Amino acid sequence: MTHLENAMQLSKETLDKIDARVEKYPVKRSAALPLLHLIQEEKGYVPEEAIEWIAKRLELEPINVYEIVTFYPMLKRSPMGRKHVRVCRTLSCALRGGYQVCKTLQEQLGCKLDETSANGEFSIEFVECLASCGTAPVVMVNDEHHENMDDDKTVALCRELKKTSA
Amino acid sequence: MPEEKRIILKHADEPGYTRDIECYLKHGGYEVLRKSYKLKPEEIHSEVMDSGLRGRGGAGFPTGLKWKFLDRKSGKPIYLICNADESEPGTFKDKQIIHKDPHQLIEGMMISAYSIQAKQAFIYIRGEFFEGARILEEAIEEARAKNFVGNNILGSDFSCDLVVHRGAGAYICGEETGLIESLEGKRPYPRIKPPYFPAVLGLYQSPTIVNNVETLCNVKHIVEMSGKEFAKIGTPGNTGTRIWCVSGHVQKPGYYEFPCGGLTMGEMIHDVCGGLLPGRELKAIIPGGSSAKVLKADERFSGKLKDGTEFDWSIWDIPLDFDGPAAAGSMSGSGGIIVMDNSTDIVQALSNINAFYAHESCGQCTPCREGVQWMRKVTRRMCAGDARKDDADLLLSIANQIEGRTVCAFGEAAAWPVQSFIEKFKDEFEDYPANGSVSSETGDKQLV
Ligand SMILES: Cc1cc2nc3c(=O)[nH]c(=O)nc-3n(C[C@H](O)[C@H](O)[C@H](O)COP(=O)(O)O)c2cc1C
Ligand code: SF4
Ligand code: FES
Fold first, then answer.
1. What pLDDT sits at residue B204?
2. Structural contact between residues B399 and B356, judged by C-beta atoms closer than 8 angstroms
3. pLDDT at B443
4. Partner residue facing A91 (CB), from B246, B255, B353
5. Rg of chain B's alpha carbons, rounded to an integer?
6. DSSP string of A23-74?
7. Spatial contact of B422 and B395, defined as CB atoms under 8 Å apart
């Protein structure tokens, strides 16, 4: 386990959260997805070692964790941009101009869809309906929603995002 | 103009109403929980039976009856799960409850857990609801500190813990058996029914009740006003209120709570949502989330209702309850009404829907996994300027081979849009120009 501990180097805070999480379930395996979330929150993605680490922690085979990592779209196997932009592509947003918003985002941020900008600042990704269809089109930046987007608002949002860039 | 009747969303948008427990208590919060714990679990169950409450998650299954199916003889622990996956395109009601009135959900869940005698409850919330999950966790801690959740609730001998479990961006986790697999820490492959009815073989192979957020909130109001009083709201067989979510081409999209059957589609679109955008005409409405069959603007719907009365409706006359959209050959589903006006390129609209199902199929059954990809490829090719005369028939034949041949209802959810779009707009599919989109005269938006 030690080589793994070293490779992972999780903060004390995350380790405490992990212990508390595992406690919550009648069956340990249920904690697999929550643990992946916790590790991704700290690292920005799910590093390869995390699979074996979680398997050990929950007394599972690595394949049991691997099958989850490869299924869920929100689990990332490589780092995303510091500002992770999710654009809804589903019908209600599309009817209100979601595709145009996505185009403008790409132009303004200098980052292509499904890619991460060279400086590691931005990633843009299409996602499915975000349950904000009444205020379509919607964009999420990290965990924040931006609703009723149009071209002007998108340009303004991008200006803000670039201002706070490293 | 039809008046909203807000029961579930009574306080949600009130000025000054906040989501913390102090505000909730000031508004009579957890009083119904107190009342409930003085009743016998069976008494609450019979109120729910009397209320006629039907599930708000999509299928409209009677909640009391679902609870009755619980296998109590097995001796295994019973689990309660709140389905807060809210991923059906066009649906955004559960989020309002979670963000604005989380304690209402917790109270509804703790009453329900007591009634079914579940000692462990979960809220399965979709991964993208980062803030929703935080809000719920905070609210649960507030409720635990006041002994509304946890050990010996309100001094009774009943204990129940409540845990928030986050998904990670997969629509199939909304399907209840997929949800259960996900909560067990596996890929969310739906289970085959029979034998895996959750009420018998659910979470950890134990009896489990899965109910939607809005459904569980209703339980609180049922105990508060009594099942019989609740049943007076709405129409027979369609009791209580429903939160309808309207999106797409209307002036005022949004969520609106009305008694079931309290208004028609026309009143909803014209009066409540301010009508269509200026200068536009209606083309089609999807009445219950993207899985529901599309309704065409100039269709006539006729037949006999369950109670034998004959009906002959235009799209505007369809009553908004469970049975109205079903009588019109579609369904009220999750309550997500998606409106498309005459600027909509119908082939692109279907292509957008197909892309959703192609992305979200769990891949477990061949007809679904292969069929949804194939349908997406066909509509995408059509939109890219290579439409062929027989594409309509091809799409229909693929959809027909998915329906009824899969483990879970996702198969139908993916087939119904294709079947209904082709059936109702066949000429637009057959005459789709081979050089791409139909027309941009009306300023249509790109949908793919
Ligand atoms: C593909 C698919 C997706 C579903 N997604 C959801 C969902 O996001 N939320 C939900 O409450 N029910 C969803 N359901 C319905 C659930 O399987 C289940 O019927 C529901 O949670 C039961 O709650 P209710 O009886 O309170 O309606 C979905 C069903 C299918 C087939
Ligand atoms: S119908 Fe589709 S989503 Fe449902 S189990 Fe089969 S492959 Fe998975
Ligand atoms: S379609 Fe974009 S939030 Fe629902």
1. 98
2. no
3. 55
4. B353
5. 22
6. HT-SSGGGGHHHHHHHHHHHHSS--HHHHHHHHHHTT--HHHHHHHHTT-TT
7. yes
Contact B359 A97 (CB under 8 A): no
- Find, among B358, B378, B178, the residue nearest to A126 by Cα: B358
Q: Least CB-CB distance to A90: which of B161, B340, B352?
A: B352
B243, containing H or E segment: strand B241-248
- A74 close contact with B: CB closer than 8 A: yes
Going from the first residue of chain B to its last (448 residues), give the mean pLDDT of each consecutive group of 10, the final group possibly shorter.
95 97 98 98 98 97 98 95 98 98 98 98 98 98 98 97 98 98 98 96 98 98 98 97 98 98 97 97 98 98 93 98 97 98 96 98 98 98 94 98 98 98 96 69 72
141-180 in chain B: CB under 8 A from chain A: 161, 163, 165-171
Residue labelled with tokens 């600027």: B343
What residue type is B337 in one-letter code?
Answer: I
- From its phi and psi, is residue B434 left (phi > 0), alpha (psi between -120 and 50) or beta? alpha
Helix B102-116 vs helix B31-38: crossing angle, to nearest 10? 10
Whether B357 lines ligand 2, by a CB cut-off of 6 Å, is no
Q: What is the pLDDT of residue B441?
A: 47
pLDDT of residue A1 exceeding 60:
no
Which residues, other chains included, contact A95 with Cβ-Cβ below 8 Å and sequence gap of 6+? Answer: A136, B247, B248, B249, B338, B340, B344, B349, B445, B447
C-beta of residue B282 within 8 angstroms of C-beta of residue B258: no
Tell me the β-bridge partners of B296.
B284
> A78-91, pLDDT tens digit by residue?
999 999 999 999 99
CA atoms within 13 A on the CB side of B263: 22
Q: Say how many C-beta atoms besides its own lie within 10 A of residue B125's C-beta.
A: 27
DSSP B264: B
User: Cβ distance B386 to B434 under 8 Å?
Assistant: yes
Residue A58 neighbours by CB distance under 10 Å: 20
On the question of pLDDT at A38 being above 90, the answer is yes
Instruction: Return the residue matching tokens 């145009």.
Output: A100
* Cβ <8 Å between A132 and B352: no
Judged by phi (left if over 0) then psi (alpha if -120 to 50, else beta), residue B220 lies in alpha
What is the per-residue burial (b if ≥16 Cβ within 10 Å, else e) of A124-157?
A: bbbbbbbbbbbbbbbbbbeeebbeebeeebbeeb
Regarding pTM above 0.80, the answer is yes
**How far apart are the CA of A90 and the centre of ligand 3, in A?**
5
Statement: residue A3 has pLDDT above 70: no
Instruction: For strands B208-212 and B79-84, give the pairing.
Output: parallel
Among all bound ligands, the one having the nearest atom to the CA of B171 is 1
Q: What CA–CA distance (Å, rounded) separates B8 from B123? A: 18
